Amino acid sequence: MGRRLLAYFLLDTSGSMYGEPIQALNNGFNGLISMLRTDPQAMDSLYISVITFDRDVKNIIPLVDLASFNPIEIKCPESGPTHTGEALECVYNLVSRELIKGSSDRKGDWKPLLFIFTDGKPSDLQKYRSFLPKIKSLDFGIIVGCAAGPKAEVSFLTELTHDVVKLDTTDSNTLTTFFKWVSSSIEAGNKSQGTGEAMTLPPPPSELNIVL
Question: What CATH superfamily classification does 5-211 receive?
């Protein structure tokens, strides 16, 4: 088996995403998969895992290669908290178990990628902050935070990563634009990993505001 590029998606499915936002998230995410499938390098090496978080945290799509990925409808409750800290704990445990480290007789996986999408703020802030150093210790190739909609808190994401984008709305057009950019970012990551250079994100479209 060749070297894999593991991409983990943490998607906020708390009550505030109910209705149009969750439909837009489904459309955008399924569009992302379709775009990635047009990239031969991604088809060759990319593995995807999807974790949703609201009151409960679920690994709704366990790690699977891109070719075998079957889209499922992401659902959310009508109300409830946003357990972002528990989501970080979940991804920490998954990466610790799933990432193949390099050794003297084999090359391990490429540095994994993490994308976290939220329209609010952590309801379990103490747990969230306790897992920040653990997530950073995993040495991700890149961590991208996305704060979507008027109630999304940017400040908590900037504690996790320097790469944070802000979306003004959670409508279908905006989320489709965001996931197109994510697709470009993954393709860029795939190409840069082979050269040994640090991964840099492509410039975002005008709908995405980079938080510095």
Answer: von Willebrand factor, type A domain (3.40.50.410)
Q: Pairing between strand 208-211 and 163-167? A: antiparallel
Residue pair 62/50 in contact by the 8 Å Cβ criterion: no
Rg of the Cα atoms in the chain: 16
Residues 73, 25: contact at Cβ < 8 Å?
A: no
Report, in this order, helix, strand and coil percent for the chain, each rounded to 5: 40, 25, 35
Nearest to 51, CA basis, from 34, 74, 78, 71: 74
Task: Convert the pLDDT of each residue in 117-151 to its tens digit.
Answer: 998 899 998 999 999 999 999 989 889 999 988 88
Indicate the pairing of strand 163-167 with strand 113-118: unpaired
The reported pTM is 0.91
Are 91 and 10 a contacting pair, CB within 8 Å? yes
Helix, coil or strand: residue 19: coil
DSSP letters for 74-142: ----SS----HHHHHHHHHHHHHHHPPPPBTTB--PPPPEEEEEESS--SSHHHHHHHHHHHHTT--SE
Sole residue written with tokens 């891109």: 66
Q: Which distant-in-sequence residues (6+ apart) come within 8 Å of 117 by Cβ?
A: 9, 10, 11, 12, 25, 146, 148
Residue 36 reports pLDDT greater than 80: yes
> Per-residue pLDDT for 203 more than 90?
no
How is the chain split into domains, by residue range? Answer: 5-211
